[in-house]
Amino acid sequence: MLDDYSLLGMEFPSLLRPRPLSYFTFWLNFEWFGAAPWAFRLTNVLLHAVAVQFCYRALRRLLGDGRAFFAAAVFAVHPLQADAVLYVFSRPVVLMGLLVWVALDRWLAGKHWWAVLFYSLALLAKEEAIALPLFLVALHFSISRNTKEWRPIGVMFALALVALGGVVYATRSLAGSGAGVQAGVGWLGYLATQPLVIGLYLKHMLWPTFVGMRWAVDVAPMWCAGLWLLAVAGLYPGRRHFARAGWVFWLLGALLFLLPTSSVFPIADLAAGRRMYLPVAMLAAAVPALRWPWALVIVYAGLAGDWAYSIYREPRMLWKMTMERQPGNVGALLQYTKYVAPEEALAALMAAPALQDAGYQTELGRVYLELRKPAEALRAFGKALAIEPGVASHVYNRGVALAALGQQEAAEMDFKRALEIDPAHKPAREALAIR
Question: What are the b/e assignments for 187-216, b being 16+ CB within 10 Å?
């Protein structure tokens, strides 16, 4: 699925853009295969396949062959992985996960500085890798107590702080980042919501009845923040199982890898299945050696995963199912309208009460342009700009509508204004070059 069409309008590669390693792989895909969705998706699948191999290698050093194979198999085929693997724009998650597993494998092999190198690459893929040093501290107290580990762990923490500073800067400076101060939700409301979201993840880990990229979740009451204490306190009774990488250690590991996206740093998407990419393996590793046929669990996960992947093969079906199961999910609606005829898209948009959403107005304007109604498109793009002033894409869209109306001079001014806001805005540059 290649539904982040804006991806193809970006400049690659760019070391100034967050997650440069991930964007470099996007650039390679585009240079070698053009905009063919299958190539982007195949790259994700291949990266995931390699990640599964290193997941098994790392876990085998701690759990033995049987449990490591079980955890890696669940990691490979669980339907919660569909979002990260088959959603093209989630590649940073898969690439980061692969490099984290490689770093952990090298760490357990005693190659600590090689682990630092792969960790630094993981940070360049996606900033969620900042959780690895915390995991290694827990691992230190669980199995090794080797004092020589503290120096490379300290370097990893320093790298994590640099990456965190870059994330804070990016979320403040990049319009439409959807995180931090631009998340649309306060830190306390976000913090209160996440224990319930993690509960939702665990539910779908055990019984995946919903597969989708847009999880509709309401901000929880503030008192729900106290559930974090309940979650941590729940690990205390089993603390003796923390030693020697027992099951409590792996539950804590899953929680640590959720923290970067489920902590006090708000993100507009309150929940997303792709955040479980690494925690899925951690939770599977927490399962003790089963005395009943554990192969049944893998078969169940595989069948459920095949069901999930079959949905992802047809984007229209995915978004329609998401809308049916989560009424009022605006994000799913806006994706659904990209895969249907303009008349059907307009009907779906007009039936949704989302008039104060900038994304809704942008999609409405796009549909009106396809229907050759530039006046209505101009009105919709203008509303999007009023809701989110100063966003380059909104200014550019207004210019496109003005050009369709024959107002070339006003359109050119909007294209220039879009470039002033975002000098890397490729569509605006191309529009001015044509003129």
Answer: eebbbbbbbbbbebbeebbeebebbbbbbb
